[in-house]
Amino acid sequence: MQAESIDTIKFTIVSPELVKKMSVTKLMVPDTYNEDGYPIDGGLVDQRLGVIDPGLKCKTCGGRAKTCPGHFGHIEFVRPVIHPEFAKTVYLLLQSTCNQCGRILLSEEQIGELRPAIKTYVSAEEEEDAARSTELALQGLSDAAKELLLKRLKATKECPHCGTPHPKIKLERPTYFYAGENLRIKPDEIRDWLSKISGSDLTLLGLDAALRPEWLILTALLVPPVNVRPSITLESGERSEDDLTHKLVDIMRINQRLEQDIDAGAPQIIIDDLWELLQYQVTTYFNNETPGVPVARHRSTRPLKTLAQRLKGKEGRLRYNLSGKRVNFSARTVISSDASLTINEVGIPRRIAENLTVPFYVTLWNIEAAKALLLKAEYPMVINAITKEGLRKRVAEANRQELLAAIQPGWVLERQLVDGDIVLFNRQPTLHRLSMMAHTVKVLPGKTMRLHVSVAFPYNADFDGDEMNLHVPQSIEAQAESRYLMQPKDLVLSARDGRAVMFTEEDEIAGAYFLTKDDATFSKEEACTMLAGIGVYDLPRAVKGGVFSGKSIFSMILPDDLDYEEDSKGNKVVIKGGELKEGYIDAKLIGIGGTLIQRMFSSYGSDVTMRFLLNAAKLSLRALLMQGVTISIKDYYNSDFVNGEKLRIVSEVSARASELYSKYKKAELEALPGYSRKETLEMETLATLDEARALASKTLEKVLDRTNIAYLMVLVRARGSVLNLVQTSMLLGQQAVRGKRLSRGYSGRVLPYFRKGDKAPNAKGFIASSFFEGLTPIEFYMHAMGARDSGMTKSLVTAVSGYLQRRLINALQDLYVDRDLSVKDASGALIETLYGGDGIDPMMEQVVRSGA
Amino acid sequence: MPTKNDRGEKLNVSPGEAVGVVAAQSIGEPGTQMILRSFHAAGISSIITTKGLPRIIEIVDARKKPKFPMMRITLEKGYAKDYEKVRKVWRKLEEVTVSKLIKERGGFSEDLGARIMVLNLDKERLHTYEITPSQVASRLKKVSGIEIGMDGMEIRIKVNGTKDMKLTRQTFVQIRKAVVSGVPNIEKALVQEGQGGEFYITTAGSNMAAVMDIEGVDKWHIYSNDIFEVARVYGVEAARNLIAHELFETMSEEGFTVSFRHPALVADAMTHTGQIRSIGRHGVAGEKESVFARAAYEETVKHFTNAGVFGEVDRLNGVAENILIGKQISVGTGMVRLAVRKDELKKIKAEE
Predict the structure, then answer these.
(1) Which of A495, A502, A713 lies closest to A596, judged by CA?
(2) CATH for the A330-491 domain, from 3.90.550.10, 3.40.630.10, 2.40.30.260, 2.40.40.20
């Protein structure tokens, strides 16, 4: 319900006249409160500037602390002061205009040459036609014009209009200007100079002709309302003023002293000193981090937070308060998993459901339902009633009947959260859009919020203490958008690459293997238990002896008309007419990026896919429970052959490493481009020793088979990798710090155990032991070094990639697809004529590719 | 089952979709899992390039030169399969400086006081690059102020031009760095065998314009990872393709699949003005139309003060500025606008 909204915002600089117009009073007294603790009239907390004490009334508008927005006051300077943030602009103007006649230092011909390069500048006030004003030059000048202009101006030694010689202007930071080497130009002189420049010359410099440059030299200073700089009362009853108030007191004090000294006819040096001091105070008032200016400090030596500091940076007004806002109707707690929920649901603790509310909009047609709701005195009940006038009343036993009588269309009842309500669920860091999705509420006992494990991946959540946030959308529009655009079941495929991001994992994958492998059969009881568990009450056709094949049981959850084929590493899967004919179900199909899930989503839609995903998981888990699977130490026990191979591998890579070294010694090793020979030796040695693991993997893969359960888990891609097996039963391999073998610690060696300059692989972090054998203390120490390095690197990557993410999003957030599927940015510029060259939804990328 | 037409529609993006954010997230989100080490321990006989997160940042920042420039040169039909001919091309490529031709040990000695330098050429090295000692000498004649004496594999140099030790030293360095043959900026070239026995050449260092003219080089198929060089030689369109392709490849190498449209959109946003702009505050984000959007990103005070003197107008079209002032954002479902006939509205209001 936006009655009026902001259309455009124009930025200008403020004239002294406008300052006086905006101001309610001129401030005269450089102080705040008198001895009685009462605001001084004409002081910095003058009651005409608004009030913050709850008891007082604003002398300008009569409002109280809550209703009065505050009013500006002003200070008049006895001597003008340069606005420090505009010193550079002033510098440009002084360099390019004549002190005598105020003209730009270009001859008429030169101006004529320049004109075409300048975009026509039209002041926004004069510009009525909105279409044309988009051409309005932002920074006034094109780069080419700027370059040309500056070159010309630099060459000019005297004014081409009146012939006055033009001195070289020097700017000494932050605000001191000199003509030539050491003739100081004081602010009042600068002001006179700037006021001579004509509007048409200003446009040549790219400035707005309506904004007078002399306004950059302040003669009056706008004082913000007290609401902007509230003082706080400490427990001791002592008042503590805001940093801005402190600064303003300083400014006024110096201004007053300056006035007194001028009136008393004090020597020029004293006046100039005070003037400079006033300039300093104003400079730090605007920006207390101005380069070249000592930082103004509080009594406690804490630097003052002045205007620029309030706006800037991550904790500044823009990023902290305006781009990011705090919200109501939200909850946060620890999460845990619940296999009984769907991926679309979220389990909410009763206590949270009782406190969060959803608005119920009372209309002519639902008023009876509203009344019934209002009558309820326990859990799903109304907490607040909002009248037509917008008055929020808490519903209690005492006023229930009264409200019931008064209720009419236009009221809003805030009722407690119930099953089926839509809520937004979020986990930080919110790295992609799948980090915030819309779930339907399921109120549950307990104190954690619960989600299905298959939806943990997109959130990147686990249940070791992770907390998540919940938001209840209030408007009907927000609820509808959440439902239509943000539900997990509609986001099964990733917008990054179109692959499945909600899938089955670990035990579920292992279970699917045991359920669907060729020789898997189940008794009638077993088949019934499994299928009933997912709400299927039919049985597949039995094979001989009343036994059911696992494949046929799994086929019960496949759509009847599904034809599908997939060939992954020696496992050819064929599904025909909704029957699993050949192969077993593995991670390639229903794991991360699962092609079967993707196929389901494109052919049967989100609801069928979600059901399939949940059923496949449940079915597989039950099959796994019936099977019973365990790994033991036996799975990691090596045969003599493997142990022999390991020794061979270790000596092989060691030999190759020492060969590299002797090549280096004989100067035969050629340096890689960009690196020294020594660095090259290190890199290649590392690569060689690193190969030990790869060689060991090959050996293990040759020796192991499906009878080894740990290896089976790897094969069906349920959990673990061959590298895990290698490190547990063969060797840990080379440890590295900063991408190099271990080298630091003691001089010339990692630990005093070794001789200085020992070149043996094990002296530099090569670990030939396995977790099974156990590590020697030396090896253990080296392993810890590698682990610490990877921990450090990880935390560094998070910082670097976080900033990359922020930059990318900031640069690209305005891009959107227009109605003709072209991509445009906020200014309407065409970025792509057809999104991605094909106009395809990135979520559907793989679907289009697979041609399904 | 949906009809064919319905399916086609279903596959299209929805108008309003914030594809910029999707692209940014698709490239940024995997960043946390990417390596920070800039190179792989690549092993022997390969050209080193920047990999992983550092490479992505390098591209997105639009750095003027990559840390490790690289080229892949395809050879013309008659050359590609003939190793001897390929070697011939190769010889012309690698930048050979004097210091690459002298002996590894004791290759040169210098006496600053006497201003004499002695170079000891390496026979084998001369042979690999097919360079004769007299060629080296004639190259050195271009260095001013020196006198050259030759004795077989030995070249004696006396600096006459100056007596200043500093300048003498500079001359010595200049001599060692003098390029005898090859293409400037190409530090190293390697012949590699590709599919079907066709050879190609990879180089460390990039100089497309010069390589194009070498006989045997297929000038239609030279690849370089230097974005600005590609822009200079082939134009921005080629540079945009390179940005997209390099982003895509860098991510693929790390094992992250990403739809090509995401890197392509980043590339388009960087290049649609005809210039290559970086993503950060000195590029795309810093040149936005909206004052608020720029101020909320970085350099807040600078943007506000500039907006003041230049009298800028914020039209509130983008996302950031609308969040700032509390209006609905302009993308997604916020793109939809309603047109209302004001006179009719007034009539209705009057009736109420």
Answers:
(1) A502
(2) 2.40.40.20
**Cβ within 8 Å, pair B18-A816:** yes
Contact A805 B31 (CB under 8 A): yes
Q: Rounded to whole angstroms, how far apart are CA atoms A185 and A187?
A: 7
Over residues B234-252, the mean pLDDT reads: 94
Confidence band for B50, pLDDT divided at 50, 70 and 90: confident
From the centroid of its chain, how far is CA B350?
Answer: 65
* Amino acid identity at B255: G
pLDDT digits (tens, 9 = 90+) for A412-463: 999 999 999 999 999 999 999 999 999 999 999 999 999 999 999 999 999 9
A294-304 pLDDT, tens digit per residue, is: 888 888 888 98
CA atoms of A93 and B151, how far apart (whole Å)? 67
Q: Where in chain A is the domain with CATH 1.10.132.30?
A: 633-791
The complex's ipTM works out to 0.87
CA distance B220 to chain A (A): 24
**Alpha-carbon gap, residue A394 to A391, rounded angstroms:** 10
B340 touches A: beta carbon within 8 Å: no
CATH topology of domain A633-791: Topoisomerase I; Chain A, domain 4 (1.10.132)
| B-chain residue closest to A830, CA distance | B272
Pair A805, B24: CB distance under 8 Å: yes
In contact, A422 and A412? CB cutoff 8 Å: no
Distance from CA of A468 to the nearest CA of B (A): 19
Nearest to B188 among A12, A673, A841 (CB): A673
* Whole-prediction pTM: 0.87
Q: Are B323 and A811 in contact (CB < 8 Å)?
A: no
Q: What CATH topology corresponds to A507-627?
A: Enzyme I; Chain A, domain 2 (1.10.274)
What confidence tens digit (pLDDT) does each residue in A86-136 have?
888 888 888 888 888 878 777 777 777 666 655 544 444 444 433 333 333
